[in-house]
Amino acid sequence: MAITGHLERLCHDRRFTRIGAFWPLGSEIDLRPAVSGHPDWLWFFPRVASTVPPRLAWGTEPLEKGPWGLLQPALAQHFLPPVQLLLVPGLAFDDDGHRIGYGRGFYDALLARLSEDVFTVGVGFEAQMHLPVPVEPHDWPVQALLSERGLRHLKI
Fold it and tell me: What does the domain layout of the chain look like in residue ranges?
């Protein structure tokens, strides 16, 4: 899969070995080939810690079934993922890095609290990129977009 190759290149070029990823929900892109292809990297996954307010906790494998059929870490000890790279899912992304997700606000709440040292990348198919996305005051953009066409840095 082309996106796996682009992700591998990004991680090798920047020496990223601690990555925040997600298991696909619905039509979201499937990152499992990248995860299984790099067992030497430390992969962190989100676990729903609270729905009100929306809050994720982060941990590594093993994963178990959670809300909405998502696979999530059985043990998640970190409210901020201890990662160098955070891969952010979405249904649509605009050219400024804003996104539409499933509307519960988990990633916006996380992006608002995340250290500037973490490189945030929206991940999806090219057909999901460059779309008009309504932006509200609580929405936080990602720094780059990654699709099968490659990585594109954004001006934030």
Answer: 2-84+109-153
Give me the DSSP letters along 31-100. -HHHHHH-TTSEEEEEEEEETTTTEEEEE-S-EEE-GGG-EEES---BSS---SEEEE--SEE-TTS-EE
Q: What angle do CA 5, 71, 120 make, to 5 degrees?
A: 45
pLDDT band at 120 (very low <50, low <70, confident <90, very high): very high
Element (H, E) at 6: helix 2-14
Q: Report the amino acid identity of residue 96.
A: D
pTM above 0.90, yes or no: yes
* Distance from C-alpha of 23 to C-alpha of 33, rounded to nearest angstrom: 11
How far is residue 77's CA from residue 45's CA, in Å, rounded to a whole number? 11
Q: Is the model's pLDDT at 16 over the cut of 80?
A: yes
Hunting for tokens 């057909």 — which residue is that?
Answer: 127
List Cα–Cα distances, 156 to 114, 128, 144, 153, in angstroms.
Answer: 15, 19, 9, 9
d(Cα 94, Cα 97) in Å, to the nearest integer?
Answer: 6
Say if domain 2-84+109-153 classifies as CATH 1.10.10.10. no
